[in-house]
């Protein structure tokens, strides 16, 4: 599955969208994981900036 994230200059997600689905339960878990995460913000000329990025997510069943 692939998510598209919008991250602010503080490293917090602003918006998340499922681009490629893996099934409703997997999608839900991926969204929960992202919403509780912080990220390093993108930098432009040494300054933190808003950005959009793709995030592939892999699940392994045991």
TrEMBL record:
Q: From which domain of life does this come?
A: Bacteria
Looking at the Swiss-Prot or TrEMBL record, what is one Pfam family this protein matches? TonB_C
Q: Which residues form the TonB C-terminal domain?
A: 1-62
Gene3D superfamilies named in the record: 3.30.1150.10
Q: Its Gene Ontology biological processes?
A: transmembrane transport
The protein depicted here goes by the name: TonB C-terminal domain-containing protein
Organism of origin is Desulforhabdus amnigena
